[in-house]
Amino acid sequence: MSEKAPLLQVRNLTIAFENDETRQAVTTVQNVSFDVHAGEILCIVGESGCGKSVSSMAIPRLLPSPPSIIQGGEIIFDGVDLLKLPINEMRKYRGKRIGVIFQDPMTALSPLVRIGDQIVEAVLTHECISRREAMAKALEWLGYVGIQNPALALRCYPYELSGGMQQRVMIAMCLILEPQLIIADEPTTALDVTIQAQVLDLMLKLHRKESGMIFITHDMGVVYKMAQRICVMYAGQIVEQASAKDFFKGAKHPYARALLEALPSHATRGTRLKAIPGQVPGPGKYGIGCRFADRCAQARPECTAGAVDLRPVGDHQVRCLYAE
Ligand SMILES: Nc1ncnc2c1ncn2[C@@H]1O[C@H](COP(=O)(O)OP(=O)(O)OP(=O)(O)O)[C@@H](O)[C@H]1O
Ligand SMILES: [Mg+2]
Description:
By secondary structure, the protein is of the alpha/beta class. It contains 11 helices and 12 strands. It has 2 domains: about 190 residues, Rossmann fold (3-Layer(aba) Sandwich), CATH 3.40.50.300; about 70 residues, no CATH class.
């Protein structure tokens, strides 16, 4: 896998949002770098507000601008820096080459259009085939994602399907275009535990070796099931990055360890993480040193004295002065 150039290289991505009142740019995501190889699932994990969605939605350039400002970095997809593409060129990448699966299907599906017509529209935007062929393809894909009566589902409006069925439709709509990169932003968080497990199994089953996936979650149980590589984000930065094997053998960053200690036991897998005391600082309140220091049991005065960079610790990259 490693001898081939990565499908995606995100380098030092730094993103700010313009404050509504002051018009000042507040840096929210800072120097985020990661690779995704074809066939690989990279999980980005961290609590709410850590910058998982902002970092990932910047890739297909789906962040509204304003208020978002890309302050620096590169997003090299298949050899092309997406940040340098004119917007009409970028549109050709979305859907066909980079597919997105959102957490809430009801915000992504159009409520007034039948499921079949929505999938057909998505296909016809990118492929020169007839409407009839596109509908046949939609029927086939609804079958692949485990919808019991695909012909009936094609004629349904989104509200007529359960949450789990809607999420399967979203997955079909994304995968039908066979994108090289799939960004799945908490695709199962809104589902109950049993349906979540089924949808995760489905995504693993349908994941092609030609495509890479970025899978965002706050749930270490889901990471354990899905990831080949892991990025842990905290307060807009990556604090640890490692292969899943190394990570689950022994995470190095105190925040990553705290998340792992909350990993649900087998009996309760799929439940939400236990809270870590304190809160993630918001953008603009990051300070100069380690952003986790005020919640970290191992913190020392040096931790907040100056910038703490990511550094190699064994086969991990860790942003902690004392990790070993
Ligand atoms: N449109 C926006 N305008 C201003 N700030 C924003 C905007 N979108 C996101 N942010 C800020 O960026 C930070 C990171 O948000 P992001 O949505 O990436 O978090 P997340 O890790 O995906 O959290 P969650 O698990 O809740 O989805 C948050 O502090 C959020 O308030
Ligand atoms: Mg998010």
